[in-house]
Specification:
Oligomer: single chain
Distance between the termini: 99 Å
Number of strands: 2
Order of helices and strands: HHEEHHHHHHHHHHHH
Radius of gyration: 37 Å
Structural class: mainly alpha
Helix content: 55-70%
Strand order of the largest sheet: 1-2
Length: 353
């Protein structure tokens, strides 16, 4: 009867030969040895491969959880530090010196530029113009955008076409806008003055009158940014559950009442966001007034010169970079102050309701 691998030892086989034969026979029967021979440079002998793989995956997962988020956001903070933090700190350092582009740094001036800014009549005139244009432009713009978004949120024919149409002014070239509004607000042959004269009214010198220039610039601002704010409000309104409007309609609420009691409270955080963004943009208002006046002066008597235009005039035309840098830092401080006021005002309204 032939011998089989049953664990018994044949009398004619040596111990070494028996061990080798037993391994071969058991392996051929489908049984794998408990451990494999160690590989040079691998984990210590006696540690199973599955345990080594599990430990490596655990270490990699721990590394991903701790350090991967920082690696992903590192490029943004690197670019922000180079193009944001460094220029801001360098501008503050320049504002503490008498600095000109031709002569270079003349010497340390301390807070003299800021002290002169407080007593500068041109700065207060520019601040008045900036705030005046803000009231004339931003308040009507946000109200019109809110009503327009509510209209586009209804079931209209060609609704997608109208939604795309409101954003077209935002993507229009600045040069094209300058040509169009230059023709509209021309003193002698402007289209608006010709329309007024056709009704027997006198034409308006849009660039010489302070209030008229504010209105003209406000129209340019509203034409460009109205569609942008409309789409932001529309996106917020589409997130409002339709059940609220259906319940209000069943209770007999009109469209106007639904707008004031459902739509406005639900989109209040979005309104706060647009107010803050509009405030920041308005304090940095530069493009529209420069296009309207074709220089940094803002009219013969600086009747519509903004704070940003005054900064560029001092730095670029008058070669006073130290004072221009001080104005830029005052713009930053004013933006922070007005943003905080807006947040407190909206929070007060929210707590009252």
């Amino acid at each position: 009867m032939p011998w089989r691998a049953t664990g018994s030892r044949p009398a004619t086989a040596s111990p070494t030969e028996l061990e080798v034969s037993t391994v071969k026979i058991v392996k051929g029967a489908g049984t794998v040895p408990d451990r494999e021979p160690p590989v040079p440079g691998d984990a210590p002998a006696g540690e199973p491969r599955q345990e080594r793989r599990t430990r490596w995956q655990s270490l990699r997962g721990r590394f991903d959880r701790r350090f991967s988020p920082y690696l992903f956001i590192a490029p943004y903070f690197l670019l922000f530090g180079i193009f944001g933090v460094f220029p801001m700190l360098f501008t503050f350092w320049v504002s503490l010196h008498d600095w000109s582009f031709i002569g270079g740094k003349a010497g340390f001036a301390g807070l003299d530029n800021y002290a002169f800014l407080v007593t500068d009549a041109k700065f207060w005139n520019a601040l008045l113009n900036t705030l005046g244009i803000f009231v004339v432009a931003i308040v009507p713009q946000l109200l019109i955008a809110l009503f327009l978004a509510d209209t586009l949120n209804r079931q209209l024919r060609w609704r997608g076409f109208f939604r795309m149409g409101v954003i077209l002014p935002y993507v229009t070239s600045i040069a094209a806008m300058a040509i169009v509004f230059g023709q509209l607000f021309g003193r002698d042959f402007g289209l608006i003055n010709l329309s007024l004269e056709s009704f027997g009214l006198d034409g308006i010198d849009w660039r010489s009158n302070r209030l008229a220039s504010w209105v003209a610039i406000a129209v340019m601002i509203d034409w460009r940014w109205l569609g942008f704010n409309t789409l932001i409000y529309l996106a917020a309104m589409q997130a409002i559950p339709r059940d609220l409007y259906e319940s209000a309609a069943i209770d007999g609420a009109s469209r106007l009442r639904q707008f004031w009691q459902i739509t406005v409270p639900m989109v209040r955080p979005t309104i706060m966001f647009t107010v803050i963004i509009a405030t920041i943009g308005q304090m940095q208002l530069f493009t529209e007034p420069v296009i309207f006046s074709a220089d940094y002066r803002g009219g013969n008597q600086n009747q519509f010169q903004t704070v940003a235009m005054l900064m560029f005039e001092e730095a670029r035309q008058l070669d006073n970079f130290g004072y221009g840098a001080a104005i830029s830092w005052i713009i930053f401080v004013l933006i922070v102050i007005f943003a905080v006021i807006n947040v407190l005002f909206i929070s007060r309204i929210r707590s009252a309701t």
